[in-house]
Amino acid sequence: MKIIVCLKQVPETNNVKIDPVTHNLQRNGISGVINSFDVNAIEAALELKDRYGAEVVALTMGPPDYEKTLRLAMAMGANEGVLLSSRGFAGADTLATATVLAAAVNKIGGADLILFGRQAVDADTGQVGPLVAEKLDLPQYTYVSKLNLSSDGQIDAVRMLDGGTVRVNGDLPAVATVRSELNEPRYATPRNIKLSFKKDIVVYDEKDLDLDDSEIGQAGSPTIVTKVYTPTATPKVTETLEGSAKEAAQNLLTKLSEKSIL
Amino acid sequence: MFDNTFTPEQQMLHQMVKDFTAKEVAPFDMAIDQKGDFTDGLFQKLIDNGFLGLTLPEEYGGAAFDPIATATTINDLAYGNASVGVTLEGHYKTLDQLMKYGNENIQKEYLDSANHRIFAFSNTEPSGGSNPTGISSTAVKEGNKWIINGDKVMITNGGLAEVYIILVKSGENEFSCFLIDKDMPGFSFGKREDFIGLRGTPVGEVVMNNIEVSEDHLIGKRGQGLEIADQAHDDARILMGAVLTGIMEHALKIASDYAKQRKALDTPLTDLQVIQEKIANIAISKELTKLVYQQAAIRKQNGQPYMEEAAMAKTFGSRSAVKAGDDALQVLAGYGYSREYPIEHLIRDARALEIAEGTVEKMRTAIAKAEFEK
Amino acid sequence: MSEIWIYVENHFNRVDPSSLQLITKAKEIANGRQVTAVILEDHDQDFENTVKQYGPNQILLVKNDNLKNASDETITNVLVDLAQEQKPDTILFGATVTGRSLAPRIQGRLKTGLTADCLDLRFDDDLLVATKPSYGDNIMCEITCPKNKPQMATVRPNTFEAVVDGSSEPKINEVEVTVDVDPRVTVSDEQGSVSNTRSIGTAKRIIALGRGAQSESIIKKANELAGKIGAIVAVSRPLTDLPEFSHEQQIGQSGNTVAPDLIINLGISGAVQYVVGIQNAKTVVSVNTDPKAPIFDVSQYKYVGDAEAFLDGLIENV
């Protein structure tokens, strides 16, 4: 059994600011950390490693500094790390990112299961998992809160929807995106941290993946960001409910129901 | 700040320990103090996640992390709960001596087990205070065996630890260190102290009644005991500086969070100079203590003397942390004085470190002597 | 005429509110474009009856029993076939779990752009300008998809209001299509969330009582309201001394941290230890007789007055 876990590195804090002159995001000095949902994806893979001896490959796309996210995956227990790094990949939207990841999955020789965190905490799209599934023509199991693989190549999962759950099962190979409810991730132990830095990391660029320049980076991205701004802070407004207690209560119920809160 | 010069390994460890502390230690801080012991499962989690083997060589299943990473780990854990930091401090300082002075046979026999068993160092006796030359425990050589007798008290992790390095009299004006194991015939635990702070860390007594050990259990050379005990103190004091930094970070976080969300009449507390001064003072003390323990750790790693810096970290840090707790308490005023907030136990915790591993008075004497010798 | 499609999502035989909200919003920004609600359902279902009340210009209806418990893959097959044939200008989804799963799959097959979790939409000439938050809502981005069609977006639920509009009868365009069921995946019936009524930590709705609301009659009424709206009753620290309550129901520093969608604080002044316990609540309503009670500083709705009378008003009208 082989499992590929796709990872993203995100800024350590969401408290990013916009340069008032250039209007670019000021990300200097903010160090990168692994996307928290991706840690659940690693744990899901490692549980399958513990159970079936699955080989776990950690995969990420980004600048050389993203190596540390792969090292963390290895310190938790992944067998190897693959970094997709090239200037050509820069500026990719979700479609162009998925193109590179899907090509890398093929380059690695495919897998029985390709895992993602449900979404990245910086851009919050959750799109790359389904896109990779589509590009590889694999079934998708998104927002998974329970996951079982059997040794005869079946996947059985529970997806957690907004108001309920649904069980989905079928054949491997497949793509799954996991929720934090799925598991409690293990820690990278000090010893495994040390050992993970002794392993080699494989690096691929677009040539290794046989990708055309038009498919990757900005050129391969249908969407463009036309404006970035800081939302004018709407101070937490307190609305006073007027009138008698009864009127105020009625008024509240109307407002809550308009906002589908009640 | 030295934090920016961490290697990628140190950085990843730092992050892991912070995560571990936030999830596994900090939520139990109050409960540990109230229970007067580690909460259920916490100690096992420290073992399962490899904390006990942090400094052990890789060939013994350890992570072989350096003094800076070790002190940072203690700092990060102590931010969640000071007792967790102190328990590991006692373990690491003991292993330092076993790794430095123990012979190959005893290392082979014991180091591997230190991944899951706590080790402790002991020199204090009921009569002697922390003056090692006043001790009356003895080791007497009979053939190729040593017979050990005596009573050791105030041992950090006493009762929890399974292996002890003890300082005994091995002859006229001759002191030596031996390694003993709780499973040896003649070994028994005495009473546990009822201290006002650091209540998660057991501090207890070990009674030795004709314990028989081989020559391999002599740590270092015969007569080298006082040197080893001094060394253990120095190693401990670096880590105490780290514990104290953690306590101050904790006090700062509570006081700062509180100030940020409260008003006095209509003025936010953050705009009041009396509050700003206290917050600034805590921050300054925290940062200076950190710099000096890091400086001591760097010197240790580079093979330079570090007695003075280690003593400074403990001396400056302990008084500063008590003061930081007191300042934080004043920021929270009535709430600060309440047992519902952890500040009162931070003060009790910090207070212990003005005494343990050499009183601050003794530390100042040692620092002054070192200065006069320059 | 260029069309805006809204994919109508359903769960438990109900149209998801996010789809209805999108119909209203799409009509507001349509500027001559036709708003089409796309409904995929089996023969036992009639979501068109709900949808038409919100006044889309057209309902594109596919009724096929293979659509019962259809997988993302199967729905993708149907929607992609329809989109390739009818070439809508824009397709919108609610940014629900379902919408966020389907939309990128369809995007991938149509090789176009998709903007996620939008908080606002508008058209600049032909371009859909989608406003999406990033970095935990700290930054807003305007995103367009200038060269590819359709333009796609998922929109955060409850961002817009759904408004009933009976001004015109939508045209219902029922189409026959082959439903290619993806044989690799089997989807079982959806199960509703079992709300854990015992734990206030996971409760979605909470009625919290404090020192100013501790009479027997208020406690009784709070429980009555809780039963009606599926809430759970919690307390601030002073009330843990009452026989009815324990530490289990206590919110605050030394109790539980809660993160409900709605919390109604009755007779709670808002001591700092309490406030830290509710800082993750989404909508905070507070009732207190003291107009200066600090709890009002962290509330979206406040009523200065008697908690019991307010409670009566809620019970009567809910």
Automatic annotation (TrEMBL), chain A:
Name the domain of life this protein comes from: Bacteria
Domain Electron transfer flavoprotein alpha/beta-subunit N-terminal, by residue range, is 22-213
MF GO annotations: electron transfer activity
Q: Which InterPro entries match?
A: ETF_a/b_N (IPR014730), ETF_b (IPR012255), ETF_beta_N (IPR033948), Rossmann-like_a/b/a_fold (IPR014729)
PANTHER family xrefs: ELECTRON TRANSFER FLAVOPROTEIN BETA-SUBUNIT, PROTEIN FIXA
Instruction: Identify this protein by name.
Output: Electron transfer flavoprotein small subunit
Species assigned in the record: Pediococcus argentinicus
Automatic annotation (TrEMBL), chain B:
Q: Tell me where in this chain the Acyl-CoA dehydrogenase/oxidase C-terminal domain is found.
A: 223-370
Q: Which residues form the Acyl-CoA oxidase/dehydrogenase middle domain?
A: 120-210
Molecular function terms in GO for this entry? acyl-CoA dehydrogenase activity; flavin adenine dinucleotide binding
Q: Which cofactor does it need?
A: FAD
Keyword Transmembrane helix attributed: no
Q: Which UniProt keywords apply?
A: FAD, Flavoprotein, Oxidoreductase
Q: Which InterPro entries match?
A: Acyl-CoA_Oxase/DH_mid-dom, Acyl-CoA_Oxase/DH_mid-dom_sf, AcylCo_DH-like_C, AcylCo_DH/oxidase_C, AcylCoA_DH/ox_N, AcylCoA_DH/ox_N_sf, AcylCoA_DH/oxidase_NM_dom_sf
Show where the Acyl-CoA dehydrogenase/oxidase N-terminal domain sits: 7-112
Q: Which domain of life is it from?
A: Bacteria
Tell me if Kinase is a UniProt keyword of this record.
no
Q: Which family does it belong to?
A: Belongs to the acyl-CoA dehydrogenase family.
Q: Which PANTHER family match?
A: ACYL-COA DEHYDROGENASE, ISOVALERYL-COA DEHYDROGENASE, MITOCHONDRIAL-RELATED
User: What is this protein called in UniProt?
Assistant: Acyl-CoA dehydrogenase
Q: Which organism is it from?
A: Pediococcus argentinicus
